Structures are given as structure tokens and as C-alpha cells.
Amino acid sequence: MTAELVRGQNHALPGTRLEIRVSAGKPIVAGATLSDEGRAVRGTSWVAHPGAPTLPGLEVSQQAAADHRLAVDLDALPDGAHQVNVMLALPVGVGGPVTFGAVAAPFVAVTGLDGTEIASYTITDLSAESAVVALELYRRGDAWKVRAVGQGYAGGLADLLADQGLTDARELAGAINEAVARGLARSVAAPPPRPADEARVRAAAQGHTAPGQPATPPDPAAEPPAQPVVPAAPAAPAQQPGDGGPVNYTHPRRQTAAPPPPPPAASPAAPGQHPAPVAGDATGWSLEERLYNQVWGMFEDLARTAAAYRSAVDFADSRMEQELDKVLSDPRSRIGDTGDTARAAARARHGDLVDQARAALDRDLAQLAAEAEVVEPALPVAFADWSSPVWQGYRAPMEVPMALRLGGLHLPERPDLRIPMLVRLPLERGLWIDSGRSGTDSLADADQLRRLALDSAVTHAARLLASYPPGAFTVHVIDAAGTGRSAFAPLVTAGVLDEPPATGAAGVTAMLKRLTQRVDLVQMAVRGGVADALPQDLDTGEQLLVVNDFPHGFDDRAVTRLRYLADEGPAVGVHLMMVADREEAAEYGPLLDPLWRALLRLTPVPEDHLADPWVGHAWTYEPPAVPPGSQVLAHVLDRVGAARRTGSR
Fold it and tell me: Where is the composition biased (Low complexity) (predicted)?
């Protein structure tokens, strides 16, 4: 039976190989420190964090995530280690909540390797703290115990680490935050909670359980993810995340508390079977929102069912290793039939466990594949693949959609099961189309990768233009060396650009100066509450700057302005799309590191570089490709250009 701990309470641990599961609803950092008998941490080598995730007997997550699994083997800890302190912290400088009072109460559980929950603790009564020691596992004689701590620190990781006796706590905290920022730069952002989860999230934040909800969150490996690669409804503008107030989960276009329930399934399922999948079978105010939520649900389902399978296989491997070690440790079983029989039995049990896990995985994957078959054809234009027939009847929209499709994602357990990668509109951060060879095993040469990256940028820009009403979205292009002339030709020919691509150093300077001045003007007007005083000829629509062949044609001042647009532009409707090879900009050194981290990295060829915020899977990203020989891109751009010229649909 699970022990539900309160602050200061302890509980005996039945074994030494454990998992610590953390759930917070928002991406947080999870780490651990080791202490000796005097409760002192013997330097940075006794701290496990995203920048150094493994220690003897201890492994933590390598990035910020809403869910974490920390692996602990108490028997394998370094000599002198008598205590494991589990620490949680909010990421710094990423635009999210800055205090634990602004997020749901973190939930921490200690489990066995088979997932059996031993003890749990919901960390309540946090307010201005940004780091907290959640639990401690400590040695008592020959046994180990777990204690609920819940000690928070308003000064963040630096204060927490200093309180544990580390003299270079501030430097280590900076290194941890830097590692987290690098991880977030490659991650797919988590959507807000689904309406069905809101009561439990609010109740957890208030320290009690909602009626009809379990006292502890379900096993993340068994529960489908809250939402997949689809955009979720934005938080109400009256309350920004991280300002210390309560989180508002209300849909921005409605005043009611919750959206209507999903429509009923087409036909009831037989006992023990899944219901037949239905497109739009999720909560939401419109079909678009229901499909968005459903896609996010599929993404989470795939993430967690794969996590459950991998965890089960790891458990089977560990169990077989233990059984074989036990056989080998007995001299009597090393020879003769006794040892062979024991080894064969251990391998047979391992095979049974793996087969059971694979059967469960195949069942879930088959259900997801069936759902994808009915959802994909029902997706609206902004969510649809370029091969979808909905593009043939394209008309300029009257409203901005919830999200935009940037490609597809899949896991190695089922490569043919692709989940649409949707991002919210307006874009919360810019895009970086990586034209370099880093991290890719593609056979394409450097010139081919650059051309593919440019083609990807054009298709992304075309989709953005097609998703906005006429005149509500403007694309600017910087092509300093003119190397992208043929790639940008479809945009120029269709007349969707207000001006030709900027070339040469003078063109780069003029374009960046004009856009940075626009950002400054809008920022001053918004902060001063005088938005009506903006010049009447100022285009207040969304802007996208596509930069090709960076850093060619960029001097130090141009680079500074580009960084400014990446940091400040999205908040006032100016977005950045970079087509660049990071190695070619290496001459700037660490100066450009914040720029790359501020952008969502995409690749022109499939690559497994994106991570989900729940279990940290490495997802293979596939760029949105126009079918060979198809004229769909030219058709859509012609429609967009005609709508911009006439101001109609």
C-alpha cells in the first residue's frame, strides 16, 4: 500500500533499486545531490543535473520536463554517500513561471522498478520559491528510508546548493541553467492541460484532491499525454504565466469554465475492446480545437506507451542480470546442469516479460494507427499535410487558426506512425532551419542540404501566409549574397512579398533597422498604454523575416539587431526564420549561443533531435515535403497573392 507522506514524515524503503517519479504540469528541472554522514555535499562531482546526469547509482533527466523519472541504485552509490537529496527547480530565463506558487503543486513518488508505488508526496504551500528539496533518501543503520522534505528556496538553485555546503554553488547553478536552456531550445513545447485534468491540477495547487479524482496522479507511463503535437488554446491574456498569480485555464474566446464534452463515438465498443476512433473525438469549442486536442492526445499516448515499453524492457534486463549474478555467485551452480537450468530459466522469464510488454505496445500502437487513419483526412488546412486534398480547395481564411503544422514526428517503435507536429499561432519563438550537417547522417552533400533547407523555409513561409487572413501577415526576406534567388522565386512570382529580397550589406542593414524600429515603436506604445498613438501607416500585422545565408553580409551591428529581433520580436508580432549553418557563424563564438537557443531548430532532412516535455524521448522530425511533381505550393501561393491584391478570400 502506498504511503502518502506529509512534510517531515518518513517511510522505510523495501529495496535499494528504485525510481523517483516527478510530475509538475509545467517543465521543471530535476536533479539530485549526495551527502555524507555529516549531511555535506563533497563538491560538484556529487551533484547529478541535466549537464551531468549520471553518477554511480544515480541518473537524472537531461532536460526540463513536466514529468521526470530518476533512477536510483542505493547499493551502487559512491563510498561515503549516506543520503540522496532530490531537488526540483524552475528553468531560468525561458519565459515560463518564475515561482512554484504559479504552477500546480509538484507530485513526487518513489516506486520499485516494476512501477509499484512505495511512497508519494505532494509539495504544497510553495509560493515565492523557485527551487525546492523534495525528498531525501537516507541510510538508517543497514536500511534506507525516504523522508518528505519540501524545503523551498526563493533564491533558486544557487541558494539551495549553497545551503548544502557547496562553495561554488552559484557557478554550478549557472552551469545547470545553461544546460537546461540548451535542452529547451530543441524541445517541443508542452500544451496546456486538457479540460478533464483541470480540476485535479487546481486541486493539487490548493493541496487537496478534487472530487472524483484519484488522490495521486496516475502512472505517467500508463496515462496518455495531456496533449500531442498540436497547438493548444492560449492562456487568457489577463494573467501571464510566471507573474505569481493563479493560472487561468479558461479558453480565451469563451467565458464559461469548460468546453463541451467530445461527441459520442460512432458505435459502442465490445467488452475489452477500444471504441472505434472518430475524428474530433476530444473536448473543445470547435472542430478545429477538438482536432488539435486529439492530435496532442495521440502524441502523448505514443510518448507514454513507448516509455512504458522501454521501462518494462529495462526492468526485464535488470531482473535477468540480477538472477544471472545470483547464479554465478554460488560456486555450486557454476558447473553442471544446475547452472545451465537456472540461466535458461532466467532468460525465459526475461523473454516472457519482453513479449508481454511488446504485446501491450503493439495493441496501443494499432489503436493509434487506426486513429491516425481517420484523423489525418479530417485535418483543416493549417494542420494538413501538403498531400491532403483540402489544399486543392484552399481559400484565404477569415480568422487565424489555432496552430500550424511544421512537419511530422515518429518514434523508432513504429516509424510509419507519424504524428503531426503542430505549433501554436502566433509563433512564440522563431524557427531555425539548420542547413549544416551536424547531427545528421544524411547522404546529401553540403550544397544539397542548403538547397533543401531553403526549400523547407519557403514551404514554412507559404503555410504561414496561407494561414492568415489577407494582409494580416507579411513576409520579408534577407538574401545578402543572392544565393537563394531560385528558391525564393515562388514567393516572388506569386506576389506574396511586399518587396524583393534584400541583398548586400546595405540591404541587410536597412531591413534590420526598419524591423527593429517597428519593435521599439510597438513596445513603447504598449508599455505606455498609448497603442492608438502608433503611426497610421504602421503595419500592425504579423511580420516574418526570413534570413538566408547567415552570417554573410552581417556586421557586428547587424548581428546585434538580429539577436534583438529574436528576443523581443515575437511579443510584438515580429518573427524570425533563420536558414543557417551554425558552424559557418562560429567566428562569433558564444555571442550567438543565445540566438540559437531562442529558436526552434528544424532540419531539412529527417533527424531525431526534438524531445517531448514528458519523458524526454528523442523524436525523429520529418520536414513537410511537397509531393514530387505536385503544383500544390504554386497553387496555394497564387491564391494567397490574389487574395492579398484584392483584399478578399
Answer: 229-241, 267-277
